[in-house]
């Protein structure tokens, strides 16, 4: 069955892998990012998301591959670092769901993104661990309250094979190929699971 899927963060490494997999699967993909794609939006600004979904109109699913945090030693993190990370990857994704709800189809689905730091902290990754845990908590709780049979799940990948610049920060971690993470998104979007964290 063909679905209309909004991919946010479509120009990033993960977003490109996901978009390619969805197109190959015969789905209609609406590409969204801050600087390229079919539409522009920044998840850190809810008004931007409200405008985005109103412009797109009806769709079947939203796959989010966007969200930034700040890395650095705990004692050096500033109020601004915390505000940015919480406002971007955590509240940004929560606001994606809030803004999209009026337009998503009955029995539609959301797939958000967290990451391996939820369970496996690294040096300098405190904010990533905090934010990822918040995203996963939101997904588990929201799954019980979304209306009209809408589902929500979360993808938690480790460092991507393609993201070579990040490998030194994840010593001993085995990278995962982007296409494998894209498969996890497909399972979340088109399967039957709800409120699940899919670790890849």
UniProtKB/TrEMBL annotation:
The keyword Endoplasmic reticulum does not apply. InterPro entries: NAD(P)-bd_dom_sf (IPR036291), SDR_DHRS6-like (IPR051122), SDR_fam (IPR002347). GO terms for molecular function: oxidoreductase activity. SUPFAM superfamilies: NAD(P)-binding Rossmann-fold domains. The keyword Oxidoreductase applies. It comes from the Bacteria. Keywords: Oxidoreductase. Belongs to the short-chain dehydrogenases/reductases (SDR) family. PANTHER family: DIHYDROANTICAPSIN 7-DEHYDROGENASE. This is Short chain dehydrogenase. The lineage of its organism: Bacteria, Pseudomonadati, Bacteroidota, Cytophagia, Cytophagales.
């Amino acid at each position: 069955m063909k679905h209309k899927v909004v991919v946010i963060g479509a120009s990033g490494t993960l977003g490109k892998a996901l978009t390619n997999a969805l197109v190959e699967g015969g789905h209609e993909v609406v590409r969204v990012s801050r600087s390229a794609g079919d539409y522009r939006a920044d998840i850190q600004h809810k008004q931007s998301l409200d405008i985005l979904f109103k412009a797109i109109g009806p769709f079947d699913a939203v796959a989010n591959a966007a969200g930034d945090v700040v890395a650095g030693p705990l004692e050096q993190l500033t109020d601004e670092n915390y505000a940015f990370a919480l406002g971007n990857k955590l509240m940004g994704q929560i606001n994606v769901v809030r803004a999209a709800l009026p337009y998503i189809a009955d029995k539609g689905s959301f797939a958000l993104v967290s990451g391996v730091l939820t369970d496996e902290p690294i040096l300098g990754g405190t904010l990533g661990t905090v934010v990822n845990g918040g995203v996963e908590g939101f997904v588990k709780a929201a799954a019980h309250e979304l209306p009209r049979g809408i589902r929500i799940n979360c993808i938690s990948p480790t460092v991507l094979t393609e993201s070579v610049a990040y490998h030194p920060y994840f010593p001993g971690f085995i990278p995962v190929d982007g296409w494998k993470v894209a498969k996890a998104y497909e399972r979340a979007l088109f399967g039957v699971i709800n409120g699940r964290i899919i670790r890849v």
